[in-house]
Amino acid sequence: MALLLTVLVAAVAGPWLPLAEPDRQDLVGRLAPPLGFGGEVAHPLGTDTLGRDLLARVVAGARVSALVGVIATLVAGAIGVALGLVAGAAGGVTDRIVSWAVEVQMAVPFVVVAIAVGATLRPGVGTAVLVLGATGWVGYARVVRVQARSLRTAPFVEAARSLGAGRGRVLGRHLLPNLLGPAIVLASQQVGAIVLYEAALSYLGLGVGGEVVTWGGMVAAGQETLVDAWWVATVPGLAIAWTVLGLTLVGDRLATRDGGARW
Question: The CATH number of the domain where 205 resides is what?
Fold first, then answer.
């Protein structure tokens, strides 16, 4: 949580922090090294090829990563939980159709979907959320489907049916609350993966794109000067690693604490 707190503070309070403008160029001070490697206090993490302050750009990129990570996880979770719940509770043809869709999605590489969507739609936050949400629902569907199949014949479900509860009420009132624990644990683990995937899309030019500052775009811009100015690509790379590490540790903690049953 301490690792994530720094990212959340940067993402939320970034516009009010006393930092330079992330897009402000200073060609005279281009490729200034970080503080401790010959740099100055004015640019503690150095500058890039256009003289832009890397600290300000990392903070600006945190807002994009947090926004895309949370929204894409919610979209993927909503799709996966809904499909897994219906498939596990209904069984039969519905279950086979959802299982087939899961297998198809798992067989299609993530990059192929990203290229197809990126070639069709304009780059932006919405496009990145669409790609990540449309490819990240499989894990939720598989976990929730198995759980729903084991609970559809539970005594409390049979009791609800015998009292006249319809299928919609059984799904939403009795099954879904008992399936949210594993889904929340899975979501806490997936946010880190979503952040990493968003950075990969931006690195390939298929993500947010445009003039929006992203960590993946910063890494891509710094690869040309990796030998002479290693900090241009290393600083955003460390920001990605820091964020993913924090999210992974939190997700592992939730997963190992009663398997999510405490939720």
Answer: 1.10.3720.10
